[in-house]
Specification:
- The protein is of the alpha+beta class.
- The chain has helices at residues 9-16, 18-46, 50-59; strands at residues 63-68, 71-76.
- The mean pLDDT is 91.
- The two termini are 36 Å apart.
């Protein structure tokens, strides 16, 4: 199939930058998850948050929290 599409220069530039933007967002999300893991691990040493984590895991469609030897890990589905 052959064809052509006309788009504005601004939209073309945005399309060119889409991969870089997606990579940047992925890296920032990974960093945020790591920081949340540290915070959750800290909370685990202060009080039992296991029931809350279990409820979160039941309701969260894209991530689960796993407690492993007092350390929290966020796993993306």
């Amino acid at each position: 199939m052959n064809g052509s599409v006309t788009i504005s220069l601004e939209d073309f530039k945005n399309l060119e930058n889409a991969q870089d933007n997606a990579t940047d967002i992925k890296e920032r999300t990974h960093q945020a998850a790591k920081e949340l893991e540290v915070f959750l691990s800290f909370l685990c040493t202060r009080e039992s948050i296991t029931p809350y984590i279990e409820e979160f895991n039941k309701q969260a469609p894209r991530a689960t929290i796993v407690l492993d030897d007092g350390r929290a890990k966020i796993k993306f589905k």
